[in-house]
Amino acid sequence: MKKLGKIYLALVLLFLYVPIFVLIVFSFNESKSSSVFSGFTLDWYKRLFHNRIIISSLVNTIIIAVAASIISTVLGTLAAIGINGMRRVPKTVVMNVTNMPIINPEIVTGVSLMLLFSFFAARMTLEFGFVTLLIAHITFDVPYVILSVMPKFRQMDPHLYEAAQDLGCSPFRAFRKVVLPEIMPGVVSGFLMSFTYSLDDFVISYFTTGSTSQTLPITIYSMTRRKVSPEINALSTLIFIVVVIVLIVKNILESRAAKKRTSGGGF
Predict the structure, then answer these.
(1) Phi, psi values for residue 213, rounded to 5°
(2) Rounded CA gap, 192 and 251, in Å?
(3) How far is 168 from 137, CA to CA, in rounded Å?
(4) Nearest-CA neighbor of 130 among 30, 80, 63, 225?
(5) What span, in angstroms and rounded, lies between the C-alpha atoms of 143 and 100?
(6) Which residues contact 183 (CB under 8 A, 6 or more apart)?
(7) Do the beta carbons of residue 130 and residue 56 sit within 8 Å?
(8) Do the Cβ atoms of 182 and 156 come closer than 8 Å?
(9) What does each of the 267 residues of the chain score in pLDDT, given as a tens digit?
(10) CA 132, 137, 138, 139 torsion: positive or negative?
(11) Residues 76, 150: contact at Cβ < 8 Å?
């Protein structure tokens, strides 16, 4: 049974990652062929960094991802603090409502946000572009931050905050010195999740973007509709590497926090 389990796991991993590795290999292909490897070259990476449309979309994507992640982390952390202070029944109801955007299909969220922005655009000076993209990304990022921070409150002793105040700390100082270090791994995890989801979101961005501001996934989609260029392989390879680095950093931070809790060095 163990051998069958290992074989099954190997097949699943091959199914998931072989296409990605093929894409990475052909990003170094000398010719434009996507089936025959004719030689090694870095020309497609050079052309990629000289493509103004891609670079502009990349910069725009990073700005939106960073801004949306920071705002979502602040809002999500404050929301988690408020939810944690609720009684059991209201907390359960609010958490279920908070989790709905995660469970909800992205196309439903994207269309609903598009209709909302269209409603305000008809009555205000709101145009589809950077602002609508940023609001949309914040909307689907906040639930992930709440989902990351809430478990840290459950792991924390609920009387620590009151004990710090009894020892002379002001409410803000007690939160900064006692509560925040305890939930910080969840806050960092929520930020990284928000950044990752914002970086590669396509469906919601597609419905809320404008002609003046496009994200990288939408630009890639526009390019693949005409013809798949090896530049897209190079770009996809770089995106994959960035996502892997973010996940490694996230896992390292979580493992360090776990070791810290196990060794009893929380304070």
Answers:
(1) -145, 110
(2) 11
(3) 40
(4) 63
(5) 9
(6) 77, 80, 149, 152, 153, 156
(7) no
(8) yes
(9) 678 888 888 899 888 888 888 888 888 888 877 777 888 888 888 888 888 888 888 889 989 999 999 999 999 999 998 888 888 778 888 888 888 888 888 899 999 999 988 888 877 777 888 889 999 999 999 999 999 998 888 888 777 777 887 777 777 888 888 888 888 888 988 998 898 889 888 899 989 888 778 888 888 888 777 666 788 888 888 888 887 887 788 788 778 777 776 765 444
(10) positive
(11) no
What pTM does this model have? 0.79
Q: Which of 231, 246, 243, 247 is nearest to 32 (CA)?
A: 231
